[in-house]
Amino acid sequence: MFKKILIANRGEIALRIIRACKELGIATVSVYSEADEDSLHVRFADEVVCIGPGPSNRSYLNVPSIISAAEVTNSEAIHPGYGFLAENADFAEVCESCGIKFIGPSPHMIANMGDKAFAKAKMEQAGVPIIPGSKGILKSIKEARYIAEEIGFPVILKATAGGGGRGMRIVRSRNELENAYTMARAEAEGAFSNPDLYMEKYFENPRHIEVQIIGDSFDNVVALGERECSIQRKHQKLIEESPSPVVDEKLREEICNAAIKGAKLVNYQSAGTIEFLLDVDRKFYFMEMNTRIQVEHPVTEMVVGMDLMKEQIRVAAGEKLSTISELKLRGHSIECRINAEDPDKGFRPNPGRMEIFHTPGGPGVRVDTHGYAQYQIPPFYDSLIAKVITHGKDRTEAIVRMIRSLEEFVIEGIKTTIPFHLKVLRDPDFQRGEFDTKFIERFMEKL
Ligand code: MV4
């Protein structure tokens, strides 16, 4: 096992990694920006190194600074968390060439799965259902026209270097296609320095369901059930849960087996997520693979009864997966992401000082946060300030626990998304489990 790990992140996920390391007996090094001096990840690490000023590109994205920090502290490994450098193949490569273990899959895997058209081709090869569309990237507008006529409108153009909702364009009719194709290519070139696009049939009201997997270096891959992630706004997830209210035993077995087949074909080693689109007829299709530990990993931890972060670190150190058989899902878990945003002003970021910060507790409640009373939220980063995760014997109990937890949660000094979450949690369609990826859009019109 590693003796010392450097954490190349901040906020709640940096704390989450520190907690896992403590339980594994691993020393921790936090890196921090000048704006994060008073952050808890600085307070709770064994050693700390300042890596630059507030803006991310000069601190948490500053590769030479982070590598130097790892070298001067003799860190054997770097955990990137999520966001920042977590899916940067070049960073993983630099770590490797400096003899530092990057806690995640290989640089090659990150690059391959980051190429969305390539990832899709691999999954098809593994026998995983894929969304009808182009075979790989589109070679010309002529090919785009031909495929669109074949699969029928609406279609969606996606940048192969995009992902997570970035670089997509819906095309509803043939007379929009040429313009959409030209614009999407230009946007993709601008955003990702890669203009390549692929095409898919566009599904109007899908659900977003993803499977958590973890693989080790002994050819073992397990699937840890699914997460329902349809409650999102502008590709930012707001509420996640496990299991999905629409996935039964049979569908779970099929979707998990598909995820395992895909992960095994590419020899995936680390924690990862395979995203699926679930159509209204409950057919599932591969969308993308994420090669990081995700924000919403706790809902899986709660139903599986496993510490995914510790497991990810263990397999990175070359250990065997600890729970290969006897996987049983217990009860239901929900996560609400609490952001420092004003829902009444279009979810505008709302940094500032939290004067009062009182977190909920009691049976079945977990709060992952770097917040505390008098904490000043810096303006440079993501607005996530806490994740409230509840667990119950069933979905109803998890929802009731979430409502009473959010009522207990007191944050004063800044606007947060807590009141918005309470409205969603009390919505009859949400409570019945009847929603899709357009739920929040419709919900906002109703308000
Ligand atoms: C789609 C889709 C419908 N049809 N692909 C969004 C995130 C990224 N992983 C892919 N996404 C989607 N891909 C096909 N063929 C719907 C989504 C999607 C979405 C699209 C537009 C607006 C909001 C959305 C929310 C979730 C998923």
CATH class of the largest domain, please? Alpha Beta
CATH homologous superfamily identity of the largest domain: ATP-grasp fold, B domain
Report strand order across the widest sheet: 13-12-9-10-11-14-21-19
Q: Could you name the ranges where pLDDT drops below 50 across 5 or more consecutive residues? A: none
What is the CATH architecture assignment of the largest domain? 2-Layer Sandwich
Fraction of residues in H or I helices: 25-40%
Helix vs. strand class: alpha+beta
CATH topology of the largest domain, what is it called? D-amino Acid Aminotransferase, Chain A, domain 1
Number of strands: 22
**What characteristic shape results from the CA principal axes?**
globular
The biggest beta sheet reads: 8 strands, antiparallel
Bound molecules: ligand MV4
Radius of gyration, taken over Cα atoms and rounded to an integer in Å: 22 Å
Give the mean pLDDT.
97
Question: Proportion of β residues?
Answer: 25-35%
Features:
alpha+beta, binds ligand MV4, five-stranded parallel beta sheet, single chain, 35% helix, Rossmann fold, 3 domains, 22 strands, 447 residues, Dna Ligase, domain 1, D-amino Acid Aminotransferase, Chain A, domain 1
Description:
With 447 residues, this protein is of the alpha+beta class. It is 35% helix and 28% strand. Strands 13-12-9-10-11-14-21-19 form an eight-stranded antiparallel β-sheet, with helices on both faces. Strands 3-2-1-4-5 form a five-stranded parallel β-sheet. A hairpin with a 2-residue loop joins strand 6 and strand 7. Helix 6 packs across helix 9. The longest helix is centred in the middle third of the chain and has 19 residues. The site of ligand MV4 has 17 residues, from strand 8, strand 12 and strand 13.
